[in-house]
Amino acid sequence: MTHLETDTPIETGEAGALDGRALRRTLGQFATGVTVVTAAHPVTGEVVGMTANSFSSVSLDPPLVLWSIVREAKSLPVFLEATHFAINILSEQQLDHSNRFARPGSDKFADVAWSPGAGGAPVLEGVAGVFECARHAEHDGGDHIIMVGRVERFARYERPGLVFARGRYGITAEHPWAEEPTGFARVDGVPHPYDDFLIPLLYRAYSNLFSGFSVHLEEEGTSGPEMRVLAYLSFRPGSTAELVSRGSYLGDQTTDEAIAVLHGQGMLTGTADSGLSLTEAGAERLKTLFRHAERFELEQLGSVDAVEVATLKRLLRRLTDSDDETC
What we know:
This protein is α+β, with helices and mostly antiparallel strands.
């Protein structure tokens, strides 16, 4: 049996009875980059551009690439007359460019930074890469025309590319299975299964980061529990000591000790039973600690791609109950 015979597909289709929407959804399973293809009319100088994810490499010798354009596209006459076109590979920061050039409009280049490339084809700024191509050949592609270009110039930049799959935009990130983790729990040189669970990984990451940050807290005359009490009360003012203990995961004794210290320093007002709130001094102390935390985070995560950090934070927020009272 083949894999297709043993697996259960969500949708199927066969020649002669194809569902166009189902076909499009299945095509969407193939992740692609996103490009904006541009050209300039050789006589009038009119510039055109359109979003395309049909871009593909064809040959290295000679250097050929292709993309396809729908026959009804208003910009098709310019692409067929132009001597050159440019394939602008959008970076992950250019989602707005993708949307702009995917929509019909008379002046898609308004407020877009670009410079004329080979044959006058616009080369966009901020891209991940660009290929400036001489028009090489056109081929029938059903409701599309396949445009083949010969690369004359290209450039690559240190910017991750924008990704499109399943009707949504994405970003490029290293696959977690691409490299064997170097976990601490190993048996005969093989990672222990425990080392691959999310909870222990999160705990170890927290422990590693916070152990380093605790040095900064000590320099400010504050302990980790004290900062957590301040942080919790900053968005849950009026909480009792019991709520603070439960919400900050500190335990009753540690919470009581931190509250006593903060009270003695004039950082808190109220009582453990009736409710606690930050004083003006407590709010200022927390602001100072947050500034230290921001600098520490930048130092620790400086070697990690900013998009990966943002992705991690989004994932962690999704794993956090929106009604959770923890800090």
